[in-house]
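Morning run. Coffee first, then this:
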Amino acid sequence: MKKLILLCLIILLPVTGQTQFKIENNKDVFLFNVISGGIIGGIGSIINKKNEKTYKAFFKGFYKGALGGTLVFGGKQMLSNFSRTHNYSNIWASKVLTYSGISMIENAAANKKLLSNLHFNLFLFRINYRADNQFVFRPRALLYSILNTGYTIIKYDMHINPKISLWTGIPVFSDNKILSKNSHFKFIGIGMGNSIWVTNFQTSLSFETIMSHELTHIYQFNMFSSTNNYFSITNTKFGISKFYKKLTKYFYLNFGAILYNGCYYLASELNKDYYFGNPFEGEAAVISLQNE
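And here it is:
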């Protein structure tokens, strides 16, 4: 019970910190990513430590996570370049930098070597490359993204844009429909899991600006995949270990989605009077609009 309480408390640390962070410029974006990466890595390192002192495990995980957060920041800057130049090669450079950084944060949270495991998301698949002790190339389907994409296709009845999807390596859906959360709030784009929905109705923002904004959300979401290392389901005593192993052989289960969605919802509730007071929206606005 003590371990469960400790886990709940340390998970609340990044949640509370991220929902209170205000992002208005690139300096804020840099600090947000470096500190978030450091905290996620440090907490995970404590949870997964073996024969080392707690403070040493935290600082080891923190500096590795901070290094990863720096690369994530660099990847998001490439999205700013894409918003300005409309050159799709910037997206691929952005993806390489970002997923390299997220991989480092994941390794930090698992208390492993900085480059022991690398991954890259392509369409609805996560491609893993393990280099610790053995070289393993392992593609798996992103279950959350598949389910979320299917649900949103049915809900909004939108159609995939094959051209943009191939150019970006991400399922991109577009249509003339207005994406509505409720009768008072309209979306021009949604980035969830590893898919993007963009409306084609008239707006002062370019398609590339909207794409940069939503790609930032996808990177935010995937950064939380590092918290998967906070949970060790295969070691439970509930008899689900065999099923879990079979399932995760073909599918990647992102438990970090729970934390990300929780953080996003909490940040929105705390900033009802100002939409971009939500740090996740504030960051996406800075990345996509700084060149407008």
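Residues 2-289 form one domain. Good start to the day.
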